[in-house]
Automatic annotation (TrEMBL):
<keyword id="KW-0472">Membrane</keyword>
<keyword id="KW-1133">Transmembrane helix</keyword>
<feature type="transmembrane region" description="Helical">
    <location>
        <begin position="53"/>
        <end position="75"/>
    </location>
</feature>
<feature type="transmembrane region" description="Helical">
    <location>
        <begin position="175"/>
        <end position="195"/>
    </location>
</feature>
<feature type="transmembrane region" description="Helical">
    <location>
        <begin position="216"/>
        <end position="234"/>
    </location>
</feature>
<dbReference type="InterPro" id="IPR011701">
    <property type="entry name" value="MFS"/>
</dbReference>
<keyword id="KW-1003">Cell membrane</keyword>
<dbReference type="Pfam" id="PF07690">
    <property type="entry name" value="MFS_1"/>
</dbReference>
<dbReference type="InterPro" id="IPR036259">
    <property type="entry name" value="MFS_trans_sf"/>
</dbReference>
<feature type="transmembrane region" description="Helical">
    <location>
        <begin position="254"/>
        <end position="272"/>
    </location>
</feature>
<feature type="transmembrane region" description="Helical">
    <location>
        <begin position="312"/>
        <end position="333"/>
    </location>
</feature>
<feature type="transmembrane region" description="Helical">
    <location>
        <begin position="345"/>
        <end position="365"/>
    </location>
</feature>
<dbReference type="InterPro" id="IPR050171">
    <property type="entry name" value="MFS_Transporters"/>
</dbReference>
<feature type="transmembrane region" description="Helical">
    <location>
        <begin position="23"/>
        <end position="47"/>
    </location>
</feature>
<keyword id="KW-0812">Transmembrane</keyword>
<feature type="transmembrane region" description="Helical">
    <location>
        <begin position="149"/>
        <end position="169"/>
    </location>
</feature>
<feature type="transmembrane region" description="Helical">
    <location>
        <begin position="284"/>
        <end position="306"/>
    </location>
</feature>
Amino acid sequence: MSSTTAEKPSFVRSMVGGLPRPFWALWGGTVVNRLGTMVMPFTGVFLTQSRGMSLAAAGLVMGVFGAGSLLSQFISGVLTDRIGRRVTLTGGMVATAVFMLALGYSTSLPAILASMFCLGLVMDIYRPASNAMVADLVSPEERPRAYGLLFWGVNLGYSIGVTAGGWLAQLGFLWLFWIDAVSCLIFAVLVWRAVPETRPQGHESTGGFGVVLRDRVMLGFTLVVLGNAVVYSQTLSMLPVAMTKVVKLPLGTYGLAMALNGVLIVIVQPLVSGWLGRRDPARTFALGLVVMAAGFAMTAFVTTAWGLVATIVVWTAGEIITAGIPGSIVARLAPSHLRGRYSGLFGFAWSLAAVLAPTLGGVLLELGSKALWFTIGGVGATAAAGMLLLGPAVRRR
């Protein structure tokens, strides 16, 4: 009994110990913010049902949001380095709350378009600032675990928030907008009160992204991340279409199977993040990409709900392996006074994938399931090979 008792605190410390208090304030604010993330998963339903838009008009509105999101990462990267991490994060959250409510009360198409563009512009401004804060606050050895814990918190909060949002939407969509806005304000206040400004002093941080774009290793890594993001973004774009329209799974069955993704991440990821964080980041990331690619390629053979569950288990394992690794690689590549810009380019890859994934996936799915999922698997495998090629350069940094 005594040995078991002694092991437990050590095991807990390996998961959550050794990280500074400001990191946990950032982590707590992120979880609260993700708990309140209820609007975006139901935006299409809100636009078509509550505002009576056609599918074409709703698609236009979502496209405008995507355009704002593409710009936001560059803007945030510059602001994070110039005016500071804390100001950029809190300002972005306050602005998100304002435009979230503006969208909720907008009724005309011009007002909705303007609100959605502004929302896309400010909603993810916090990401480069948050990534730079973690790099500033946490030692290099602990960064993979810290980024992994943020990843875990995002999934925990999001899974609960989406579930609650589905119920609250039945009472009225305005509930979703207000809860989302309040969660953004709580995040802003928590960071402003509990996280000090971490921007390094004594460095000149002017200009745009020229320095980042001249870093060939970072550009190569951004392409790897883009491949990873195009693969994973299929879970939000073509996977639900393929499973419900082609395989003919009931929507409820599909939703129940997809819930397994969040459950596995919440249970497994904290248990392995410390161990994975001690491995070589380039090789670990490449391994996760290969596993994820295999899981999506297997989807070409899915004909039943149990087949879908098997593929979800595989690509979720890849997702767990990669969790926390990309952020730590960006922190390793970036000079301390340019972490915002480097994180902004990293975030841009994900924003661009959100535009490319449904476009590419829609064309491929028209050719057939095998064309889509084998191509997506090939993209993931290519990204893994690129990561292995970049490995020596990453290790030299």
